[in-house]
Amino acid sequence: MLKSKASFANRIFALVLALTLGMASFLLWSVGTHAEDDVPAYSGSPSVALNNNVPGFTDKEITTSSFEKYGELDQLGRCTAATACIGQELMPTEERQSIVAVKPTGWKQNKYPGVVDSKPPYLFNRCHLIGFQLTGENANEKNLITGTRYMNVEGMLPYENEVADYVSSTGNHVMYRVTPIFTGNNLLCDGVQIEAYSVEDKGKEISFNVFCYNVQPGIEINYADGSNELAPDAGKIADSNSFIITGGDSGNGSVRSSAGSDDPGIPAGTTYVVNKNSGKFHYPSCDSVNDMKEKNKEYSTKTRDELISEGKTPCKRCNP
To answer: What sequence ranges are listed for the domain Type VII secretion system protein EssD-like (predicted)?
Structure first.
């Protein structure tokens, strides 16, 4: 009788354990993947609209009270959703600090000269889910993921800039949510879903729901662990003879400590760096300079007044 009871208890324990492990596996599979089925395969554009570009905020979620909330890391140490009501009161008032101490999942850094458009040409950035210019977060591990240079600059940054410019110029608020999308137990996300909605004008100026692809043209990436290598067709992007692969720990997006001739990438005598696309000018040490594609940079020796007289506008990040 005692043996029978013990056997029954063991079976119950095994059943409970199996259910627990099964549920944990399901949670790991499903976290941050609610948009996955709606995302088309990457086809050359850094981002794509989801749900007809309509964000999914409910009436209860929408507020004019600024806040920021960063989800807990999951059981694999991966970031989950970050949500905020962006207002001027959340925007940074101090210089950006180093974030190099944070090692997000899937961080396997390499350089690809001639393929990745940055100096130095690191594949990965420590990407803020909610950009520093919006909430001033530095080394917050709940807000930093491993993302390609392409996703960070071509995918996410234009949307962050749109929100930052709107909030800075109007004083209004924007609901903002960024959700990294992982397939299964992969350590590197497929991309991020970004939703935004301007509150006071009920979405008239800001309203979007997009997915930014965590890819890098010319590079093959293993999303299970973040390992990467030059793609067979990378020659279409750059001369493969210039390819060098070196492990590293940069690509952190932190403040550049020097400017002008102290930075080998900036000509001596440079007073400002102008973004040819946006017409904004920046101090050479501004983070936005590192975010630009090299082909969009114009190194200027002109004065602030001269640039403004030409129709250029000062960056709201570094306030030159």
So the answer is: 68-197
